[in-house]
Amino acid sequence: MIAVITGDIINSQHAETEVWITRLKNLLDQWGSAPEIWEIYRGDEFQFKCNIDEVFWRFLAIKSLIRSQENLDVRMAIGIGEENFSSGKITESNGTAYIHSGRLLNDLKNDGHTVAIKTSNVSVDRDLNILLKWSSKDFDSWTVATAEIIHEMIMNKDLTQEDLAKKFAISQSSVSQRLKRANYELIAETNQYFRKKISEL
Description:
One of its GO terms (molecular function) is DNA binding. By secondary structure, the chain is an alpha+beta fold. The protein has a single domain (2-199), classed as Alpha-Beta Plaits (2-Layer Sandwich). The chain has helices at residues 17-29, 55-67, 96-111, 122-139, 144-155, 161-168, 172-181, 184-199, and strands spanning 2-10, 38-41, 45-50, 73-81, 115-118. Strands 2-3-1-4-5 form a five-stranded mixed beta sheet, with helices on both faces. Strand 2 (38-41) and strand 3 (45-50) form a beta hairpin. 33% of the residues are buried.
C-alpha cells in the first residue's frame, strides 16, 4: 500500500505564484524526484506519493509551508491504497490510492473542508476523518508565525527551542508560546495515532 496526496492551493490567484510554487517544489524535491514521485499541474494543483507511515507528517509539512505565506491555504485529499500501475509520471500512475485521492479532492472542494482521508476501510475512514475535522480547525487558523515554527519542527525534529529562537530572532519563551498555541505536543501524538490506525489496514 502507498499514500497519495492530491491537493490544490486555496487563494493562489491572490498570491505571488513564483514564491509559493518555488517553495513547494523545493519541499517536494526533498521527498523524491518529479514527475515520478510528485508533480504540480494545472497551475495550482499537485500530487505526490509516499510511504503510508509518513503521510500525516508530509501533509502537515505542506500545510505549514503554505500557511506560512500570507493569505494562502491548501486543500489536500489523502488516499491510501494500492498502486497497480506505476508510470514515469505520477499523474499517469493508477491504483486505488490514486482513485481515492483524486475523487476525494473533488468532494473537499464541494464540502468546504481542507483535508480528508479515504482508504478501503470505512471504519478507519470515519475515525480519522473526525480527527482531521477537529484538528484542521487548528491548522486552518495558524498564523504565518505559527506555521513557520511548526514547519521547522516538522522538517528538523532535532531542533531545540534555542535553535528556533536563533533562527527566527525571537526569545525562547516566544518559541515556547507559539508551540503551545499550535498544540505541537498534541500534533505529535496525533501523528502516532494516525500511523497506528493506518497500520491496521
